[in-house]
Amino acid sequence: MFNYYRDFGTLGVTIIPLLGGIGINSLYFSFRKNPTLSKITFFGLFLFGITFSFFNSPFGFLWYVYTLIITYLVFRYISKQKNQEK
Questions:
Q1: Can you tell me the distance from the alpha carbon of 55 to that of 59, in angstroms, rounded to the nearest whole number?
Q2: How far apart are CA 23 and CA 60, in angstroms?
Q3: CB neighbours of residue 30 within 10 Å
Q4: 46 touches 52 (CB < 8 A)
Q5: Fewer Cβ close by (within 10 Å): the C or N end of the chain?
Q6: CA 83 to chain centre
Q7: What residue spans define the domains of the chain?
Q8: What sign results for the dihedral spanned by CA atoms 13, 19, 23, 29?
Q9: DSSP secondary structure string, 22-62?
Q10: Burial of 18 by CB count in 10 Å (0-12 exposed, 13-18 middle, 19+ buried)?
Q11: What is the pLDDT of residues 33-70, one digit of tens each?
Q12: What one-character DSSP code corresponds to residue 78?
């Protein structure tokens, strides 16, 4: 949380976790309605980030962003191949 405080002040400590919680909560309820492998994978990645943000927030690290981007591209490629087979 100190990184958010250092960059954005008190408003950053309030707003950024609130928006992150709303986003992850909407992903969770979307997964509950229509479970897919991609949704559970992204929920697991975000849950990892939430769990370890107690020590140091991984959301700002480039390796975490790369992991999210590569996972998204892999699932998009797989779904595109699956749609072409139909």
A1: 12
A2: 16
A3: 13
A4: no
A5: C
A6: 25
A7: 2-85
A8: positive
A9: HHHHHHHHHHHHS--HHHHHHHHHHHHHHHHTTTS-GGGSH
A10: exposed
A11: 999 888 999 999 999 988 888 888 888 788 999 999 99
A12: H
Indicate the Cα dihedral angle 41, 43, 49, 52, nearest 10°. Answer: -90
- 54 contact partners, CB below 8 Å, separation of at least 6: none
Contact between 47 and 39 (Cβ < 8 Å): no
Distances (CA, A) of 74 to 35, 71, 77, 79, 83: 18, 5, 5, 9, 14
pTM for the model: 0.77
- Residue tagged 């690290």 (tokens): 61
- CB neighbour list of residue 28: distance below 8 Å, 6 or more residues apart: 43
